[in-house]
Amino acid sequence: MIAAARRLSLPLIVVGLLLLFPLATTGFYLEFTSKVMILAIFALSLELLVGATGLVSLGHAAFFGIAAYATVLLSPKYGAAGVFWILPAAVACSALYAFCVGVLALRTKGVYFIMVTLAFAQMAYYVFHDTPLGGGTDGIYLNLKPEVMLFGARIVDLGKPVAFYYVVLACLVLVFLFLAVLLDSRFGRVLAGIKSNEQRMRAAGFATFPYKWAAFTLAGALAGLAGFLVAVKDGFVNPEMLSWHESGAVLLMLILGGMGRLSGAVLGAFAFALLQLFFQWDVAFGSFAKHWPLMLGGTIILCVAFMPNGLIGLPGQWRAWRARKAAEAARV
Amino acid sequence: MDLPTFLVQCLNALQYGLLLFLVASGLTLIFGIMGVINLAHGSFYMIGAYLAFSLAPVFGGNFATTLAAGLVLAVIFGYLLEWLFVSYLYERDHLQQVLMTYGLILVFEELRSILVDNDVHGVPVPAWLSGSVQLGDLMQYPVYRLAISAVCLAVAAGLYFVIARTRLGMMIRAGSSNREMVQSLGINIKFLYRVVFAAGVALAVFAGMIAAPVSSVYPGMGAQVLIVCFVVVVIGGIGSVRGAFLAALLVGIVDTFGKVLFPQAAGIAVYLLMAAILLWKPEGLFRQG
Hints:
The structure holds two protein chains of two kinds. Chain A has helices spanning 2-24, 28-53, 61-74, 83-105, 110-130, 161-184, 186-196, 198-203, 208-234, 244-257, 262-279, 282-285, 292-306, 314-331, and strands spanning 140-141, 148-150, 153-156, 236-237. By secondary structure, chain A is mainly alpha-helical. Chain A has a two-stranded antiparallel sheet with strand order 1-4. Chain A has a two-stranded antiparallel sheet with strand order 2-3. In chain A, helix 2 (28-53) runs parallel beside helix 6 (161-184), helix 2 packs across helix 10 and helix 10 (244-257) packs across helix 11 (262-279). The longest helix of chain A has 27 residues, at 208-234. Chain B is globular and about 65 Å long. The model of chain B has no long low-confidence stretch (mean pLDDT 85).
């Protein structure tokens, strides 16, 4: 009981702070935090694949972008769509693509899997980039944001930043809890088994393919949720949402935060977005701020070299370092 | 499609495929021997094209000297890069390799934007190669493109010779089928890694330099080539130079004719090819050990 309370205390404090955040600020920082929470959902969806199942996908942005495009393309041209049908429809589009890609990509392993997921994401990217379906390179606008109607009454106005902020926060908490429960279930245990030794799982009598397939599809669907939220937030989508830079960025959030823990994904999304914001800050960097990718790239390289377990692994790394120091001191 | 058009497209496909091979062979060697996924490989192609652009005034527009100087720089650059960054990655998992090289891409692209700029540039075709060959009554084909194909074929033949017939090639082949064994036989694996990496960088830079006069020089050109090269490497089988050669030609043909026959779906054709081949052979056409 006490252990559970200790484990839950930090996430509860974070959620509490996020709940109170709109009281303290409006405008830019509110929208920024909404965006980061959406990225956190996106990172969580990838954590299910990379951290929990050990499948490194470099094409996750495809599912993110497909749902965003579906949201815009399925919305009626001169009216608002209802959230209760457009959200499932958009998520279903992503899940369907993940379902189809999964059956092909999961036939491969390791580095092939990385490259194949990348290639399928590029394929989706070129569909939107080269064809007039989604407005080509210019992207396409969402004319009216979806409405949340229940019994003929509008309960939330997604156009209002504060209301949207709370909707995103609720989604983030729900996705986090859902994944926490899922990974604790038998299904999640099998995924963990596949991660550490797939051969042995098969020998133990598990048909591993359906589990990986289900995880892949589910991860695609959750990325779709994030994509839907982005489309609603910005009211605009373009092919860059599906580009491999986006897939790389979300992987980066995971490694920055720390793999194998759900909170690592959330922490990583916040750390990544804050780093990006910091490097773009022209008060600190002057005219050099427009070269922020240089500093971001350098930081990434340093993180990979010196922080292999991510931010969430830092306390452990620190303890290991102290223990080693203490052992050396004792020997002397 | 009449015969001359078909011929011209075949030559285009050949030239594109061979150029891809130069970039992809480095990628596949680096992965096959060092076990490192190098996302920054496309950047080397980009760097090559920009070298051709910015070194040209230094050497008074003499293309051959520019090429030679660029190659020397590329080998030095590859050697340093392996020493400073890539050597950290051998024992790490693929994910960290992906991230470190992703970071390198950001750095290279931004350095490029600081050192040169973000405009599209042209590199002139050297004067002695600027003519064209008559094909049929109406079609012409530029000599420079033929020269690219010829040079690429020569490089491919040279690569084949080095890998199949020399002592270094023997080490490379052995390294790509069993790294630990090579190490325990007393071969200086660190040196081998550095040579292979520098050679891979040099091949990609060289491809970028000779492609610059036909494709122009623009930001983001590296990423485009990188992804296609991934497809080539996956189709050919990771670590196999022979596989990369055949796959590059195949991709060249599919992409070129895809653009002619189905302009709407041109971007997708190559990926469909890859999906089909993976369905048939999940580990590519020529998988190494």
